[in-house]
Write a structure and sequence with these properties.
Elements: E1 10-14, E2 24-27, E3 30-34, E4 43-47, E5 50-55, E6 66-70, E7 75-77, E8 84-91, E9 99-104, E10 112-114, E11 118-119, E12 124-128, E13 137-142, E14 155-157, E15 164-169, E16 174-180
Antiparallel strand pairs: 1-4, 2-3, 3-4, 5-9, 6-7, 6-8, 8-9, 10-16, 11-16, 12-15, 13-16, 14-15
Length: 181
């Protein structure tokens, strides 16, 4: 087989900020743990698979819980909203523990945001998504399907930005916006 390049559990990536050895970082849609100290903008090796002790937020995390990377605070959390799933807890962590033991999933990251319930105005509406990137996928789901209000619903998608999804939804129709990057 002539096209094999490498196993893929360790990748040479450009650090988005200075990362010390053993600390984690998100590089685009890739999550990894720095093998050595890497200065911002420099290329270094990141482990993308395996089991690691990684900084976490306060709060207990149980074995089997999905863990998400909070790229603003640079730690793991069990809060999915606005964060990327990076693996699963393999050793319980107490609220006061500084780290949690995690098996990294090694797959491309997906950021997902679900809005609070919105009410259609019949005009273009900006709905904040908090992803920090222009979403690659957006869809609207209806929340009020009672027979008296269901009826016909129209949705038009506008030009999304790194902060807002733009949609036009039929007047007075209740909906949620799901945005993914």
């Amino acid at each position: 087989m002539d096209n094999f390049v490498q196993a893929g559990d360790s990748l040479a990536l450009t650090a988005p900020y200075t990362v010390v050895a053993g600390a984690a970082a998100r590089v685009g849609k890739i999550f990894g743990v720095a093998v050595s100290d890497i200065t911002s903008g420099a290329v270094g090796q990141f482990k993308t698979e395996g089991v690691f002790d990684i900084a976490k937020t306060t709060g207990a995390i149980s074995v089997g819980d999905a863990v998400y990377w909070d790229n603003t605070n640079k730690y793991l959390t069990t809060t999915a909203a606005g964060n990327c799933e990076v693996g699963v807890c393999v050793r319980a962590a107490l609220s006061g523990d500084a780290t949690v033991r995690v098996k990294l999933n090694g797959r491309a990251l997906t950021l997902k945001s679900v809005s609070s319930e919105q009410t259609g105005t019949g005009s273009a509406q900006n709905v904040a998504h908090g992803l920090g990137f222009v979403p690659s996928r957006v869809f609207v789901t209806y929340t009020d399907l009672t027979p008296a209000t269901a009826g016909s619903v129209n949705v038009t998608y506008g030009s999304h930005t790194s902060t807002n999804v733009v949609v036009t939804v039929t007047l007075n129709k209740k909906f949620l916006v799901v945005a993914e990057y």
